């Protein structure tokens, strides 16, 4: 294999990685807990946060609400990570190079 063939192959792989990464980053992911729904993009930016709890939140419930927000964010983040692993796993650690 000559160097030109190798370089062309590397460029194709780089384009594939970039295309998949862009698709993931522009996708939306949802995380839910009992009281909260969070929508994030593939860049792990929060696009929307909804409190779905219909009752009255008292001071005693403040800590529970905070926990529910964390659970929802962590769930959405886990979905993003899972998608990255699924889509980019074939490239191993090459994704960090590009």
What order do the SSEs take from the amino end to the carboxyl end, as H and E? Answer: HEEEH
Structural class: alpha+beta
Q: How would you sum up the global shape?
A: rod-shaped
Strand coverage percent? 15-25%
How far apart lie the N and C ends? 23 Å
Summarize the biggest pleated sheet.
3 strands, antiparallel
Rg on CA atoms, Å? 19 Å
Roughly how much helix do the residues carry, as a percent range? 40-55%
Low-confidence stretches: none
Strand order of the largest sheet: 1-2-3
Instruction: Count every beta strand, where a strand is a DSSP E run of 2 or more residues.
Output: 3
Helix tally equals: 2
Tags for this entry?
single chain; 98 residues; three-stranded antiparallel sheet; 2 helices; 17% strand; rod-shaped
Describe the protein's architecture and organization:
The protein has 98 residues and is α+β, with helices and mostly antiparallel strands. The chain has a domain at 55-87. The protein is 52% helix and 17% strand. The chain contains 2 helices and 3 strands, in the order αβββα. The protein has helices spanning 3-26, 62-88; strands at 28-32, 36-41, 46-51. A 3-stranded antiparallel sheet has the order 1-2-3. Strand 2 (36-41) and strand 3 (46-51) form a beta hairpin. Helix 1 runs antiparallel to helix 2 (62-88). The model has no long low-confidence stretch (mean pLDDT 89).
């Amino acid at each position: 294999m000559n160097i030109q063939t190798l370089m062309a192959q590397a460029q194709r792989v780089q384009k594939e990685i970039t295309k998949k990464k862009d698709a993931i980053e522009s996708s939306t992911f949802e995380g839910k807990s009992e009281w909260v729904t969070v929508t994030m993009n593939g860049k792990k930016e929060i696009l929307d946060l909804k409190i779905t709890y219909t009752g009255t939140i008292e001071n005693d419930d403040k800590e529970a609400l905070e926990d529910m927000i964390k659970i929802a964010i962590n769930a959405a983040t886990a979905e993003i990570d899972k998608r990255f692993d699924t889509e980019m796993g074939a490239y191993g650690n090459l994704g960090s190079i590009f």
